[in-house]
Design goal:
The complex is a heterodimer of chains A (about 220) and B (about 270). By secondary structure, chain A is of the alpha/beta class. Helix content of chain A is about 30%, strand content about 25%. In chain A, the strands form two sheets. Chain A has a six-stranded mixed beta sheet with strand order 5-6-7-3-8-9, with helices on both faces. In chain A, strands 2-1-4 form a three-stranded antiparallel beta sheet, with helices on one face. Chain A is globular, with a radius of gyration of 17 Å. Chain B is mainly α. Chain B has twelve helices and no strands. Chain B starts with a helix and ends with a helix. Classes of the chains: A alpha/beta (about 220), B mainly alpha (about 270). The interface between A and B is medium-sized, with 26 and 26 residues.
Chain lengths: ~220, ~270
């Protein structure tokens, strides 16, 4: 689904590189957690995969254009924009040419946000806004979800709900998921693969069957 | 008042401008680029000066030069990513430099004040056709790009990933701002035109509605500002730029006062 070859990256285009000689292959249907310390370039790697940043050298190839994306924080989003949750979802649906507008209701319902459909986004809490952006990412059944810290700002129950939805999408519908994670527990519980970033290099590993919390998750329903 | 053809021209042009300015203004204000309107109205001054000196239609020369400056602002964004206001200073310096140099040579054979302050007497049939043509093209373009513009204004990265051609649409939008300012010049004058892009939106935002309603209220307030300003201008024999600006401020104050009173009453 995603192939990264010989990638080097720095924001200035000069040394020192933030990411050095990165070679990754993310398989279709996998659930990959990107892990690393603060400032280790987890978000940068996700943005490179999304094409929001251009590598200094090397290449990134993505096997689909049906991508759902959740940004790390709300600072790049104009949260004071006078727009209702419903308008935001309809706008996204129009852009991705989604004909079945009932899916807006369904996705908001699955995240417990249906009653906020007419609310202005500026009236939402941080956690509620996070859920709306997750709903936007899930709309239109994307083949690839790239999520940057999906549990940020959410209470424990909401975190559980969201990870259950993500696991179900991954296991039952084969959606490939790449999730930047800051917490080890969530990463091991949900993912099949881990990309760990340390000292500008990325190491890939598979989560062992007996360690992952995904055992028996094929029956998860929301 | 309405029996005079110059007043009919001014009112017809005013109707189109009152729709167009807030439509463009809503996206400009919400992108936090309100001052771009100000920079481009200065750019239009240079365009007018070029038209007056060369004998070309000043509105069209203003449109061409203002649009070029709009594109220049977009182009310079990558050079001054975190200092967007600096780009506006650069464009204003270039434009005012051209305008003052050309006008001070004394070769501009027209009343420059009419372009600075606006005039209801000078809207000719030819101007009216230019205003109608540019307004229709701009209105159609905005309605076609409506969702893309909302997405870019709200979340530029998200828009790119969803497949919106952000760079192209930003350039098209810069052209639209240029067109809007050019068509509004005759009535409002370049000193006030940027206010009419921002003020109706500022008033509508006080109503705390969703985007569609905010846009519709902006257009309604823009219409009220311009029509009341034109009537006032005719009655007190003042330049419409000034009266329209004053009406827009008065309307904003009234809306803010009503909102405050309503809050006090409900609490």
């Amino acid at each position: 689904m995603i192939t990264v070859k010989n990638l080097n990256f720095s924001y200035t285009g000069l040394e020192p590189c933030l990411l050095r000689d990165v070679n990754i292959k993310i398989n279709k249907g996998s659930y990959t957690a990107i892990m690393g310390d603060n400032g280790s370039a987890k978000t940068t790697l996700a943005k490179l995969m999304l094409g929001l940043l251009t590598p200094v050298t090397g290449s990134v190839e993505i096997g689909t254009n049906r991508i759902g994306y959740l940004p790390q924080n709300l600072k790049n989003i104009n949260s004071q924009f006078p727009i209702t949750v419903g308008e935001l979802m309809n706008c996204h649906a129009s852009i991705i040419k989604l004909k079945d507008r009932n899916s807006i209701t369904n996705v908001l319902k699955s995240l417990g946000m249906l009653d906020k459909k007419s609310s202005l986004i500026s009236d939402l809490s941080g956690g509620q806004m996070q859920k709306v952006l997750i709903a936007r990412a899930l709309l239109g059944k994307p083949e690839l979800l790239i999520l940057d810290e999906p549990s940020t700002g959410l209470d424990p129950k909401s975190q559980d709900d969201i990870y259950s939805i993500l696991r179900r999408l991954n296991i039952e519908e084969g959606v490939t998921i790449v999730s930047v994670e800051h917490n080890l527990h969530a990463a091991f519980k949900n993912s099949t693969d881990i990309l760990s970033i340390e000292k500008c290099t990325v190491k890939s590993s598979t989560v062992p069957e007996n360690t992952t919390g995904r055992k028996g998750d094929r029956n998860v329903r929301i | 008042m309405l029996e005079y053809s110059f007043m009919q021209n001014a009112i017809i042009a005013g109707i189109f401008i009152s729709v167009l300015c807030p439509m463009v203004g809503a996206f400009l204000v919400l992108k936090r680029h309100s001052m771009m309107g100000d920079a481009l109205s200065h750019a239009s001054f240079a365009g007018i000066a070029i038209g007056l000196v060369t004998g070309f239609n000043p509105i069209l020369s203003a449109f061409v030069f203002t649009s070029l400056c709009g594109l220049l602002i977009e182009y310079l964004r990558s050079f001054y990513n975190k200092y967007a206001e600096l780009i506006l200073v650069i464009v204003m310096t270039l434009s005012v430099g051209i305008a003052i140099t050309l006008i001070s040579t004394g070769q501009a054979n027209a009343n420059v004040n009419a372009y600075l302050f606006g005039s209801i007497l000078t809207v000719t049939k030819e101007d009216l056709l230019t205003v109608l043509g540019l307004s229709l093209i701009s209105g159609l373009t905005i309605s076609m790009l409506y969702n893309q513009l909302i997405y870019i204004t709200l979340d530029e990265d998200g828009a790119k990933i969803a497949g919106v051609r952000v760079k192209l649409i930003n350039y098209l939008f810069a052209l639209l701002v240029g067109a809007t300012i050019s068509v509004s010049l005759r009535i409002m004058g370049l000193l006030v035109v940027s206010s009419m892009i921002a003020m109706p939106v500022a008033a509508a935002m006080q109503l705390n509605q969703g985007f569609r309603k905010t846009l519709l209220f902006s257009i309604l307030f823009g219409f009220l500002d311009i029509m009341s300003g034109l009537v006032l201008s005719y009655n007190i024999n003042a330049a419409p730029g000034g009266t329209i600006a004053l009406v827009s401020v008065a309307l904003l104050i009234i809306i803010m006062a009503v909102k405050k009173l309503r809050t006090l009453y409900l609490s």
